[in-house]
Amino acid sequence: MCRLIFETVKWENGAPCLLPWHQRRVEASIGVHGSDDASVPDLASVLSDCPGPEGRGVYKCHITYDTRGRVRRTSFEPYRPRQVKTLTCMEMPGLDYSCKWEDRTGLLAAGAALGCDEEALILRNGMVTDTRYSNVVFGDGSSWVTPETFLLPGTKRAFLLSRGDIQECSVKAEDIGKFRFCSLINAMLDPGDVVVRTEDIILC
Hints:
Elements: E1 4-12, E2 15-16, H1 19-33, H2 43-49, E3 58-66, E4 71-78, E5 86-91, H3 105-108, E6 118-124, E7 127-131, E8 135-139, E9 144-147, H4 155-163, E10 167-169, E11 181-185, E12 195-197, E13 201-202
Parallel strand pairs: 5-6, 5-13, 9-10
Antiparallel strand pairs: 1-2, 1-3, 3-4, 6-7, 8-9, 8-11, 11-12
């Protein structure tokens, strides 16, 4: 069965950000989930054929491709970070989102009852993983760490680890109180952009 996968690329001031990291993830996704005759989409070529807005500004670029390597659509929309004030821990030991499948039904179900400024922090067997749309980092005001038990290998997470800006470690639910802040990170978000105090994280 041919399934749809997507990449979200930050388009800032007329250019894509971290494109080599997104390309690596596309190659990994096709390598694991692609059909025998699948080709690997070249994101630089895709964006050359369908360029984004010029001038200053931040846009979310959504590129959908399938497990045969065919690019289905590319779209751009202005980006504003969602404001999150509370994280609610939810234990979901069977959840698997190791690939950016376009069908995110199971993932989104984790926080279906939450309010617009609330987000789910997903646990697997007591270990902290990700929110529904981001990896996470925990900080004390001077440094950031990220759980080694992530759901999705995020591009921003990989980039920050490669630079030594964040460190990977084991984070259990009971460890959350050792930190002051939790920040959401993804292709669009850097550490510190969307921050929740650990006192505003609701444990299960």
